[in-house]
Amino acid sequence: MSGRAHPDVNPVTDGGDLPIKSSPHRHKVGVPPKQNMFHDFMYTFKETFFHDDPLRHFKDQPKSKKFMLGLQSVFPVFDWGRNYNLKKFRGDLTAGLTIASLCIPQDIGYAKLANLDPKYGLYSSFVPPLVYACMGSSRDIAIGPVAVVSLLLGTLLRAEVDPNTNPDEYLRLAFTATFFAGVTEAALGFFRLGFLIDFLSHAAVVGFMGGAAITIALQQLKGFLGIKKFTKKTDIIAVLDSVFSAAHHGWNWQTILIGASFLTFLLTSKFIGKKSKKLFWIPAIAPLISVIISTFFVYITRADKQGVQIVKHLDKGINPSSFHQIYFSGHYLAKGIRIGVVAGMVALTKSTLQENSGILREKIVCMSSE
């Protein structure tokens, strides 16, 4: 056996006893071409805002198909409406009646948080879902006012205009703020700026929502205790001072009795719904039952004559257009834009937190089932 090295084997070792094999072919890696700054910027811009290539469905399509795809992208009802049937309608009808029973008392309360007439809460509860049914793409999202935004809107508006002394200006400023809140959210969607939400601190958002929940609960003490003269501030010290200062002459025991009774009823119905899935309908209709029974009870006992506050008159029909009441000039325009932008961002933050909470609940359910 010859002691000569194999021609493919390099006798040089790697520091040990084994020789290093070398390949007869060598490949050189070329220097990448220098990128144009404009092309680099456009690539980064596309990856940030259009990473999903939203126009990919329109490529190599005839004009008629492009028109239909464009119509479906703006009005998704033309897409899912073709597969709609009676079975889905029955389920949607049941869900709609259930949600409506909850929205009636809930949105009246939201209107009171914003210092507006109850009718505006009712208008905002059924007009947005009708629009979203044609233009929305999610089947599970909830459309309408929420407590946090209503309270924030009422606080910011009241800091500019007193709703008691200038109700007309307050209402017009509310229309202006809500209009620009919608413009803000529409602009964020059109320019695809949803990625900005990724930079929000989850701890900060949770802290904000927790603080908002405490603030809302404290604000409900005014109606729960029947206090007429209440502080306009929202901090805990001012609210508690206003509550206890009215303890001797400002509390209404009839209001407290009615509120405590139906609060117990709602909590009990919620507990029953959690215990038995077959009785899910009980907590769903409990708010509407509370409204009906409490209205009947106040009517037959004339409790409104004893200081129990009622909703009073609601205008019939659909609210006329309020576009002409929006401030497009004057010193209230800047205030309306500022309040609207803040309200729109808070609403977007809250919806993001709800989405993350829903994903977390789904993960917990999956983990528990495994």
How many strands appear in the DSSP assignment?
2
Structural class comes to mainly alpha
Low-confidence stretches: 1-9, 358-370
Mean pLDDT: 79
Ends apart, CA distance between termini: 64 Å
What gross morphology would you assign?
globular
Strand content: under 5%
Radius of gyration: 31 Å
Helix-strand pattern: EEHHHHHHHHHHHHH
Read across the widest sheet, the strand sequence of neighbours is: 1-2
Residue share in helix: 55-70%
- Discrete helix count: 13
What is the makeup of the main sheet? 2 strands, antiparallel
InterPro entries: S04_transporter_CS, SLC26A/SulP_dom, SLC26A/SulP_fam
Transmembrane segments: 141-159, 171-193, 199-218, 253-272, 279-300
Organism: Brassica oleracea var. oleracea
Subcellular location: Membrane
Question: Your description of this structure?
Answer:
Helix 4 runs antiparallel to helix 5 and helix 6 packs across helix 7. The protein is an all-alpha fold and 370 residues long. Strand 1 and strand 2 form a beta hairpin. Helix content is 62%, strand content 2%. The longest helix is centred in the last third of the chain and has 39 residues.
Descriptive tags:
two-stranded antiparallel sheet, 2 strands, membrane, single chain, disordered C terminus, mainly alpha, disordered N terminus, 370 residues
